[in-house]
Amino acid sequence: MNLINQSRRILLKSFGFCLSLPLLSGKLFASWPEEAFMSTEIDKAIGELYGHPPQASDLVKLKVPDIAENGAVVPISVSTDIENVESISIYVEGNPNPLAATFELSPYIVAAVSTRIKMGKTSNVVAAIYSGGTVYTATQEVKVTIGGCGG
Question: Going from the N-terminus, what domains does the chain have, and what CATH number goes with each?
Fold first, then answer.
């Protein structure tokens, strides 16, 4: 009889946990930077995300192809030797919403990210690195031959 009660308790706890997942996930995703992702201008998106104006810097290493044959999958890498990097963001000037990605970093890892982004047309790609209250950026133009955002 004790085994049945124990199994029933485990089942009820599991069921209660499953019911609470939607409430928990809402709290986890409530702090995403919606204003920055919905912004239609790069400078405004940077301001929404960091609250500071950007400054161009040769300390930001941005690696993207000069020509992207398919705008749906454009490889990009961003890295830096700047100390205490808090986040790295990637913007595409010609996209309807320029903020393509943002990465929150731990102080214990190397400040480098690689991903693939979508580009609707030929435009500038901007990498922004936030460290110590300053936003450092690098920009490079990418020519897109086949559009990736419905083009």
Answer: 1-31 (no CATH), 34-144 (2.60.40.2470)
